[in-house]
Amino acid sequence: MLRERQSHLVTEADLRSLASAARAASRVVAKAPAQQRHAALVAIAAAVRAQAPAILAANQRDLDGAAARGLAPAMIDRLRLDEQRLAAIAAAVDEIAAQPELIGRLEREETRPNGLRIARMRIPLGVIAIVYEARPNVTVDAAALCLKAGNACILRGGSEAFHSNQALGGAVAAGLEAAGLPAAAVTVVPSTDREAIRTLVGLDDLIDLCIPRGGEGLIRFVAEHARVPVIKHYKGVCHLYVHAAADLEMALAIADNGKTSRPGVCNALETILVDRAIADVAVPRLCARLGGKGVEIRGDADVVRLGGAGVRAATAADWDAEYLDLIVAMAVVDDLDAAIAHIERHGSDHTEAIVTTDAAAAARFLAEVGSSTVVHNASTRFADGGELGLGAEIGISTTRLHAYGPMGAEGLTTSKFVVRGTGQIR
Amino acid sequence: MLRERQSHLVTEADLRSLASAARAASRVVAKAPAQQRHAALVAIAAAVRAQAPAILAANQRDLDGAAARGLAPAMIDRLRLDEQRLAAIAAAVDEIAAQPELIGRLEREETRPNGLRIARMRIPLGVIAIVYEARPNVTVDAAALCLKAGNACILRGGSEAFHSNQALGGAVAAGLEAAGLPAAAVTVVPSTDREAIRTLVGLDDLIDLCIPRGGEGLIRFVAEHARVPVIKHYKGVCHLYVHAAADLEMALAIADNGKTSRPGVCNALETILVDRAIADVAVPRLCARLGGKGVEIRGDADVVRLGGAGVRAATAADWDAEYLDLIVAMAVVDDLDAAIAHIERHGSDHTEAIVTTDAAAAARFLAEVGSSTVVHNASTRFADGGELGLGAEIGISTTRLHAYGPMGAEGLTTSKFVVRGTGQIR
């Protein structure tokens, strides 16, 4: 046990040396032809399938450890792999492989009056560090998306998933090597102490970007100590505004789906705003529908009055809460402006939806609400890279720099200016 | 004098209150119709012209102060405004006004299999802080570009230009007010102490991005203290590679232009790499051409041997130097791979050029050199927002996040996902 614990600690020099190797590998990956990166992705999917017994055995060790430490059932569920989940992980890699190639693509070509031909060429970012918690599938998803975008990555998962991540990292390494790419292009950090994160996110000469994924505590820790750029979201306090001209049946279905289909995820609904013009009818029906699904409703004075016996009075904290549970805050607002003002004050720049048949109101909501995903007549649950057509998702950004909203492989690239002339001078 | 000095000091509370006002103004500007922002830009240009006498008088105060403090002539030249320079500043604002509108533009619309219509809408970033040094034109350029992109900005110029910046800020405020926009949309910080910068770049709840422009010292100070995202470049160590298949006359003209047309700017040429296959002919001619223009040449052993009496031996530091002066480093490299490796090791991700008639060599150089601008058969001096067709430039980024290379108004925007449905749930 002592030896195993020690193996989880790596020194700052070790981390620097891992990151240097990742940097060198990033140059090889960036220059590798598209076919070679494609072959590596296909080989990684195959290796995950071929090594399933060893991966599941490693996962069982993590599950045993989690049970011994009394981890919460939700955490254990996130940690668990089985045949079906492994098959889905491998299938996601194949899907990413099948997406169109990004790197080297020329965009926005134009010719200047002096004859210079200007274009932008899509290129990788370099080395991406991903810091995450219990879900071992992130190891393979992140590796595949980074590779698709021509980057190397350094993956530092949670201690709960240590053995699973090492085993999955082994499958990824096998796939890279089968395609003739350096295994250091995807480095799974053999450490689970928090100091390793602090060191990693300080290596701004070797790492181009850090994406933390997990609870707010982890994300704040990374943001606080990072010297490299960080793309993150802290939380998703998603709103649904039921406008005066809403189709009420549609609003009920969208509210129900937003709140109850998967309450623990960041695009789940947390607050419902109901237009005063229809509150008398809409509030009782929303409360009945959600209450019938076991949702606790915390309302403002109007909702308490209209919503029936089950409604609790909301406190100030409820308007900013990300419950991640079967609880919803509900308020009556005077009009579209009041709804937008409420979202501006309490929103988290994640996802907000309006249900209305009034095209002008919808257009104003979509234009004026500044959140990274704005939705008309559909569920907030669509704020997801796969659902929005990105193929897969490396994370969601609620800060506006570089990427805003769900990020796929393209979010892991940038573009450079390519200038072609015939001897022009200035 | 005491009163004047005191007026340059503002407290942390003052800065927070300025930034809060800028944040509130940013919401107004973001929602303002395109015509209103356009009208403000046109009115700003008019106000700069109308207030020219007062602006030039303020500038004279700064010039007197600079002379009294014995500032370097180059610095005084950057500080100086005259009728012609003011006219150019106003004309640049009119040009920015005439550029196509960005905000609210829908891009990449597609319909998903479930009927959801997905698009991206271009939106402002919010509040941009620009921290800069002696050149007062930045005050107006930055204000105009931020406004074009629907942002508010906080401008903190150098102490040398204090009165000029206040006067130009007054003209900008007059233009904003004439168009019915809040003057706080462009805030010129009435302070010149460095502590104010430290405070500003820590206000991550109010400021979305900081762009420092100036010397490496200023930029490092900002990068070190910032809690807001920073877009920057430290230096431009630009390379020209004269390939074996170069048109030698073209190479001579491009080398001469890159080094001598404006040696003090970041896209000026600092290092010339000559392919060994043509070194016997090319090195003597390059040295003669540049030497004849008063350029000091610091060469490796081959260049010292071939370049004639005027060539000094380079030291290791020369390969990383940004001279910003009539000095150039020159080395002979074995081939394209050696040139790319040299640039990878010593480049600053700014701008690199190749001169060659060999299309395959050019294509490899353009693809494999990772700098933010790569150039074939033209001068590095074209790495400039105006020359690349961006209309104007807020800065150049040599870090890959968000923007890479010259940034215009579009670099001051981001995009959100807009989802339109007919009741879809998940």
Concise overview:
The structure is a homodimer of 426-residue chains. Chain A has 426 residues and is of the alpha/beta class.
Annotation keywords:
homodimer; 426 residues; alpha/beta; Aldehyde Dehydrogenase, Chain A, domain 1; Aldehyde Dehydrogenase, Chain A, domain 2; 2 domains; 15 helices; 16 strands; 20% strand; disordered N terminus
Q: Can you give a write-up of this model?
A:
2 copies of one chain form a homodimer. With 426 residues, chain A is α/β, with parallel strands linked by helices. The first copy, chain A, folds into 2 domains: 2-232 and 406-418, Aldehyde Dehydrogenase, Chain A, domain 1 (3-Layer(aba) Sandwich), CATH 3.40.605.10; 238-387, Aldehyde Dehydrogenase, Chain A, domain 2, CATH 3.40.309. Helices cover 43% and strands 20% of the residues of chain A. Chain A is built from 15 helices and 16 strands. Chain A has a 7-stranded parallel beta sheet. In chain A, strands 5-4-3-6 form a 4-stranded parallel beta sheet, with helices on both faces. Chain A has a 3-stranded antiparallel beta sheet with strand order 1-2-16, with no helix packed on it. In chain A, helix 15 links the parallel strand 12 (351-355) and strand 13 (373-378). In chain A, helix 4 (52-68) runs antiparallel to helix 8 and helix 12 (279-292) packs across helix 13. The longest helix of chain A has 20 residues, at 12-31. Chain A is globular. The model of chain A is unreliable at 1-6 (pLDDT under 50). At the A-B interface, helix 2, strand 2, helix 11, helix 15 and strand 13 of A face helix 2, strand 2, helix 11, helix 15 and strand 13 of B. Strand 16 (413-424) of chain A pairs parallel with strand 13 (373-378) of chain B.
